[in-house]
Predict the structure.
Amino acid sequence: MLAATLLSVITLLEAVAADPDAPVWTGTGPQPARWWVRRLLHESVVHRVDAALALGVDHPIEPAATGGRPL
């Protein structure tokens, strides 16, 4: 399962590097390839903050991690 996930991530990164505006499938209809990168960023941040809250530690999010856009 880890190998399949890693292969999917590599495929996504290659697609975004080739053409970030190329239309790709999403559950909400076609979106630009870069949409998935932002979606995965949100997913990672949610789990990171959840873990930090469970441990009672600080969980700052650097603005650069979101391309300067608010989450």
Summary: Helices lie at 2-18, 34-55. The chain has a mean pLDDT of 81. The chain has one domain: 2-66.
